[in-house]
Amino acid sequence: MADKLLYTCKFEPTFYCRFHSKETYQLYCKDCHDFVCFECLGEFHEKHFLCRLQDYNTEEDIRNQIGILFSEKDNCIKYIDEFSDIIDKHWRQLTIDEGIIEQQIKTNAEQMREQIILHEKSLLSELYTIFKKFKISSQELTTRVENLQSDVNKFDVDKLSEYKLEEMINVLSEFKACTLACDNIKKYQKPNFNTDVKCGNDITEVKIGITESMKFSPKKHFSVSTQTEDSIDVDTEDEWFDAEDDVDEDSIERSSDEIKDHNSLQICKLNKEIGRIKKICPISQTDAWILADRQLHKMVNQSIEDTVYADDADDIAVLKKGCVLILRNNSKVIMKLLKNKRLARFANIGNSHDKDMIPYCFCNSKDDLLTVYLISTSKDQRRGYTNRILQMNKEGILIAEFDFYTLNMNEPCFIMQNDDSNVCVLYKKLSYKNNNLHYINVLKAVNDKCESIKSFYGIFGYQPSFHFECHGICTNNNNVFVSDIRHHSVYVLDKDLEYKECIADAINGLDKPTAIGIFNDRLWIVDGNQISMLDLKNKYG
User: Rounded CA gap, 436 and 428, in Å?
Assistant: First the structure.
């Protein structure tokens, strides 16, 4: 019995299937000359000629296969060496790929650290500024209380009839004012620091909460003879912004009536609601094409027509003869608007080799040279993201093509071409998607390639790049006109993006300037539900 068990163990071993690790070989396929488990039977060997693994014919077939395989032993060894070479190459490639990804992780981490340092500086700056105001207000209130105490000590109740009415009113008014201010101090709540840290392209989103009870300090100095209860209130003029300065547009301070009296702009109220205007292309002193909420509208005699000329439009360009071109981000074809309001093909801007290239925006120059900006959504490990500039003539014929690469997928919002044939591009900051912050680059074609030669990140205040929000640029004689919504202004930069001067701001009645355009020395400025027009005369013409 023991001998029988040894015999069974010796000549009937268990062979596990190479395809199904939990199954064992039970059969042999004569058609495929291969071993079969029950899982293989249903998947690969239906209607094949099968026999048992221990069958005599099976053993003979296996011996024949071994004989053929080893009849030329050198070839067999060659195949095995190739296996080793393949494994070795794969091992080396794994090592290279590991190193590349390791470097990418380190680079990304370094960028994250830099952004965190910038966030820290911004937070601390805002913190010091706001608390400095609170401390100054507290000191002023201390001085007022001391003056009130001195005035009260001078009063003699038995001689009230000898005091002037104005003196008694001043003391009572100041007493009530100090009472109200101190009541606000009693309501002081400890400020909190809230963080919502996210790893990735958006490194951190940090917010500091300052309670309303902290804003008790008025900006004006108190005067006993002029203050009343109504004038002593919580300081509503102090605004608190979070770390990334995401300003609610509705909270931007509007210009006063006194300022509007000095208005030098010609105002045109929109006759209908068409949504937020992204682009305006004036074609005469009173007419313009307007892109709003991805719909194309036309303004005639400063009145918007009821007709919607095109839907799903992401950008427009108007050629000299009035021909309107339409760009869609999800399409590789530029369309042309015909006189009968029908859309026809103008030019192709994509090919089968670049399926991930997306057209973002385009523009035309004074010579009707059309410039199209495309970007790839896929990233090359060595070069980064591919950006492409196409240049076409007014007939839609491609005359030039330039590629350049960036580490990040910069998202272009607006593009203009100046008289030097350089391209001005308005980009949206990836790190500030929630805040709509922007920057401008000047691109120049050099040796069949395109490169950034100048950049602009804002001008106002400390760290202007944290506050620059722009929704419109245009060019005229190498001057770049820029709208700045957070500072209620439109200003001029030279061809090197150096600041020249502000030509319109809140003093002129601007509130939220966005899209802008120029026609015959006349600047059109979209401002909410109205369009402001400014004659530039010969200064920038």
Answer: 7
